[in-house]
Amino acid sequence: MSPRLSRDYGSILLGPADEGGRKQRVRIQVLLTSAIVFANLVGIVVAVALGAVGIPEPSFLRRDLMLINFIAIPVYAGVALIVGITVGTATMVRGLRWSIREQIPTPADVKRTLRARRMLVLLQFILWVGAAVLLGVLYGLVDTGLITKVVLIVVMSALVVVAISNLLADIMLRPVSAKILQAGLGWRGSSVRSRAVSSWLVGTGVPVLGIFLVVLFGTFSPDTSKMNMFVSVTVLVAVAMGVGLLSLILYAWSVTGPIQSVRRGMARVREGDVSPGTDLVVYDASELGELQLGFNNMVAGLREQERMRDLFSRHVGRDVADAAMLGDPELGGAERTVAVVFVDVIGSTELATKRSPTEVVDLLNQFFAVIVEATERADGLVNKFEGDAVLSIFGAPQAIADPAGSALRAAREIAERLRVEVPDLRAGIGVSFGPVVAGNVGAIQRFEYTVIGDPVNESARISELAKRDPRVPWASRRVVEAAERGERTRWKMTDAVVLRGRSEPTDLFVPRLIPNIASGGEAGESP
Hints:
Elements: H1 21-54, H2 66-95, H3 97-100, H4 107-142, H5 145-172, H6 174-182, H7 192-220, H8 226-270, H9 287-316, H10 318-326, E1 332-345, H11 348-354, H12 357-377, E2 381-386, E3 389-394, H13 403-421, E4 427-443, E5 446-452, H14 454-466, E6 474-476, H15 477-482, H16 485-488, E7 491-498, E8 505-511, E9 513-515, E10 522-525
Parallel strand pairs: 4-6
Antiparallel strand pairs: 1-3, 1-4, 2-3, 4-5, 6-8, 7-8, 9-10
Helix pairs in contact: 1-2, 1-5, 1-8, 2-4, 4-5, 5-7, 5-8, 7-8, 8-9, 9-10, 12-13
């Protein structure tokens, strides 16, 4: 069973691709706000871990620092969070106004959106830098030895917040990226490389820097014991493992979504499905988005190729088209033994005078449809539509086990179905058999597949005689005798006629009974 190709943005959190603009804007804003709050909470946890036990000396856990620890820091954190959410929301709403109104974005809209995204992430860094300045001043008023430590811890935590915010913003803004990319406008988000660097910064860079600072402070501080050093390094390792795992999950989330969508699409293509439903939603603004777009371009090319193949098959026949696709067609042909059915309308001139051209075409199309269906059911090829006549061949270009029998069965079905389904038209049906040259005839610039030989001429001559009684097909002796016994016994000789252009009489056969295709029974003895 083929995998279902989802029309979403790589995550159930982001909703379906056909979601309304206002509902989508609310979803994006809630997700962005939650992502920013989450990133800041991670930063606060890192800062507390580093400040309390990660870098023990000089210590923050002192009585004279209680007001700063339990009043100044919580107040600033609350105010900064409110400011960050309020300003960030207002900035993103302005930047995404075109998306809310479900408008096609312009280059100016793209610039505003990109600027809003950058400001959202930059705002978090500014607020943490503000915390570094404020706390550096407050702690410095009590103990100047704390300034360096607090600034380093806050800046390190700020880097964690910015890195996580950047990764989450790329994911949460996928619906916006999809609309911009669909409009054909340049939009470049974080590259895969920059995401990897952000992930490394959070999971490796900051913890390693913390370990270095612990060793640095411990080396130049005589009050630092080995146990304190051990505890600090242990805390930093725990932070590295926890935050590193988180950053790796976010990085994997940002890159596996587009890759998984391409993988599912490729599975559909391998099964032969190149319908418009196979196209992916291009939502990633990095190199992965180019991968998604490249897949869609590939599928569009395959779809166009399939359409051309279908049109080619309709014009020349499926077997001829398949043979042409397999190699480089050339002029000329090879001798083959085939059966030929020629069907010619009776009174076509009179028909054209009594009916409008549109009515004539509709009637002929019904006539041709019966012949095509009966021929293909018998493994034959409708080779030519010659005005109001049709030439079908059996045994070329693809060989079949019983070409004569197949042609006779098709002729009987055509006669019965024309009588029932197209009663306004009558036709003479002639069947012949023998060696022909089958191949491409014409010029190198333009040629067609056809068969040339005596069976073609004979079937055309027999169809003229068959107009005496269009209820049944007429066939030459050699096609009846070449058929397998089951089909051969259905035919009987009715006359011997010297065909035009010949000197010897040709034995002609008609079906013993007229097959009733509609009911599956027998209509009665043929004349």
